Amino acid sequence: MSQPFVLDAALQQAVASFFQRIPFNQVLGIELDELSPERVTMHLPMKPELIGNFVHGILHGGVISSLLDVCGGAMALIGASANHQHLPAAERMSKLSKLGTIDLRIDYLRPGRGQRFSATATPLRAGNKVAVIRMELHNDEGVLVAVGTGTYLCG
After folding, report:
1. Which pairs count as long-range contacts for 109-112, CB under 8 Å and 24+ apart, including other chains?
2. What's the pLDDT at 148?
3. Burial grade of 78 (CB within 10 A; 0-12, 13-18, 19 or more)
4. Looking at domain 9-153, does it have CATH number 1.10.10.60?
5. Residue 1 has pLDDT above 50, yes or no
6. Which DSSP letter does residue 22 get?
């Protein structure tokens, strides 16, 4: 019987470091809030460079999609870490380094108005090779702006 998965401080730091080192995430200004086996939460402050509709000051749809994908990818990475915890560290890291998005579906429900946008991701399925993650994006007033489902290759 396998050990229960614990997302300890070292693994939390490794996941956070992985996503903070991606230059595109830095350009967008994505910040991590919560990493757990059940949920990942991150946010993005609005800034002028992220506006898609300059007349109304609305967040660009590509930024919305990117934030949801990054959040879903972090959740998939945590799930893959749990599934591969029995492997030696080098083999586990080799598998985790192959994480990638296979499919991403975003439903834009409302215009991206606000000063801060929060994304959450929860696992629907975390298998040995593929994870399916559900994501939501809310603005700073708690309005649901978009939802997404991502499928990720996990080793």
Report:
1. 109/144, 109/145, 109/146, 109/147, 110/143, 110/144, 110/145, 110/146, 111/53, 111/56, 111/58, 111/59, 111/145, 112/52, 112/58, 112/59, 112/60, 112/61, 112/63, 112/64, 112/137, 112/139, 112/145, 112/146
2. 98
3. buried
4. no
5. no
6. -
The domain limits of the chain are 9-153
Confidence label for 67 from pLDDT (cuts 50, 70 and 90) = very high
User: Which bin fits 27, alpha (ψ -120 to 50), beta or left (φ > 0)?
Assistant: alpha
| Sequence-separated (6 or more) residues with CB below 8 Å from residue 90 | none
Long-range contacts of 141-145 (CB under 8 A, 24+ apart): 141/114, 143/110, 143/113, 143/114, 144/109, 144/110, 145/59, 145/64, 145/108, 145/109, 145/110, 145/111, 145/112, 145/114, 145/117
